[in-house]
Amino acid sequence: xxxxxxxxxxxxxxxxxxxxxxxxxxxxxxxxxxxxxxxxxxxxxxxxxxxxxxxxxxxxxxxxxxxxxxxxxxxxxxxxxxxxxxxxxxxxxxxxxxxxxxxxxxxxxxxxxxxxxxxxxxxxxxxxxxxxxxxxxxxxxxxxxxxxxxxxxxxxxxxxxxxxxxxxxxxxxxxxxxxxxxxxxxxxxxxxxxxxxxxxxxxxxxxxxxxxxxxxxxxxxxxxxxxxxxxxxxxxxxxxxxxxxxxxxxxxxxxxxxxxxxxxxxxxxxxxxxxxxxxxxxxxxxxxxxxxxxxxxxxxxxxxxxxxxxxxxxxxxxxxxxxxxxxxxxxxxxxxxxxxxxxxxxxxxxxxxxxxxxxxxxxxxxxxxxxxxxxxxxxxxxxxxxxxxxxxxxxxxxxxxxxxxxxxxxxxxxxxxxxxxxxxxxxxxxxxxxxxxxxxxxxxxxxxxxxxxxxxxxxxxxxxxxxxxxxxxxxxxxxxxxxxxxxxxxxxxxxxxxxxxxxxxxxxxxxxxxxxxxxxxxxxxxxxxxxxxxxxxxxxxxxxxxxxxxxxxxxxxxxxxxxxxxxxxxxxxxxxxxxxxxxxxxxxxxxxxxxxxxxxxxxxx
DNA sequence: ATGCCATGTCATATC
DNA sequence: GCGATATGACATGGC
Length: 605
What we know:
It comes from Oncorhynchus kisutch. The strands form two sheets. The protein has a two-stranded antiparallel sheet with strand order 1-2. Strands 3-4 form a two-stranded antiparallel ribbon. It has helices spanning 2-6, 13-26, 33-36, 38-70, 96-102, 114-124, 161-164, 166-172, 192-200, 203-219, 254-260, 268-271, 287-294, 297-301, 306-321, 326-329, 343-347, 361-368, 375-383, 385-400, 423-430, 441-446, 450-462, 469-474, 477-486, 491-565, 596-604, and strands at residues 73-75, 82-84, 580-584, 590-594. Strand 1 and strand 2 form a beta hairpin. The protein has 27 helices and four strands. The radius of gyration is 41 Å and the shape is elongated. It binds a DNA duplex through helix 22, helix 23 and helix 26.
């Protein structure tokens, strides 16, 4: 393989074909085409850039349409639904002083559209220049000089560096939803880190990034390997593969950080606690500084935590000392596949067996703890490991299903009233802007096993199954089969639907079974109690009758003695009770019988 | 740290 | 034979 690589620069077409064959043979071993042939890689890069330019033009048109549509919509924070905008399309601008603290808050109600965010990003951080593309970007790609004209409607897409950058355009293109992040539209001093954090908190951006990165990886032959993202170490940039057209200079390219920090996302609620000073705008961004920045939410919230230093140091040590396995070093898929390379694995993910062997984003998330998660956070993360794994695997696999009606972002192609799932779940499931778990255990407790219930819902969403789980489970078999026949479903979807139906029915059956068992147990307990009561009653009755019997015997003895004492012989003397006894025949006649035998026996003795 | 409990899931039997 | 249901066993998470 080394020989091939060394001589690849002068490869003839025949050799290239041979290389291609060899590469295809070695692809199972994880080898990449770029390893073999530099010229081929360059050729592919050119083709890819050409495609990107075409895609850019197409996406630009789409974005214009989306923009027009989204101006009429706003995101309902509670339901996650996109509601027609009741307020004027020009949101009131928060005062400049409050910008630093409110710009990242998602609860204030003001919304920053996705385009605005990306505009802000592009203008604040003209990273186009830092990306080392195989070929220089087109000359017309220039960073925006100022943030002042940050209104997207003030700039045409041609003027926007975002639109002009093929990569950014590709990353931004599929968005369809407005982002509920308040922002000042004035030329307030927004520093780079703030801009990035703001963007990092956008689920749509995360979604788009993942999809676009997936596309880029696909184009570069990275889809055949499903490598989990294991490395969240500050040095993870060294583990990144050489992605042509993507990024190789990590230290100064926030987009890579953006891509790599999905799981370590700063919770939006904490973002507003971050205050960064504008002078940092010109800070040289190293990987460490950015990582620290992105992972310091808890250090901000718990500045006095005595565990913090331990967590930061010890956990980081663990991360650094952890031997890296080959599968962990390659990160071409980031978290896009989460180690699940097949739908079958994905479907079995709830078994709890296969997951243990999968390098999970949770692990990387734990690794992120070295950047400021407290000890309690680590504990919480650990307890939610499987949940977290699944959440990622589900949503990410869903994005690979391009046929899915749910894969186009938060705004589904389904009509709003025909969405089989609550739209809030769609947004929540696809956007990773929120921590997948909450520290509010009481809330989780009160929710019971809703999270378990939602597993299948998430799976269904991920695979783009256009039915509600409840429908799948509760529909009569005929209606169910009819429903299945009415929709074009692939094998994976059908398998999942039948599994969902089986599990759902079995869950209800188990509940009924346990209910019956409990009822049976309680019935038996009641029966036992009744029997005990009956037994006690009978014992009392027996004792009472024994008493009566004893009394009757005593009365009979007294009567006998009285009768016997009144008997007289021929001489008028009373009979001795020891010599005679009174006996009664069956007809009621009484006889005085001498105790002869007893006397004789006594004489014999 | 550990045990208990509730629940989900699977495998299998039965209807 | 197939699907629904029942149930024992096990896993998991919360307390």
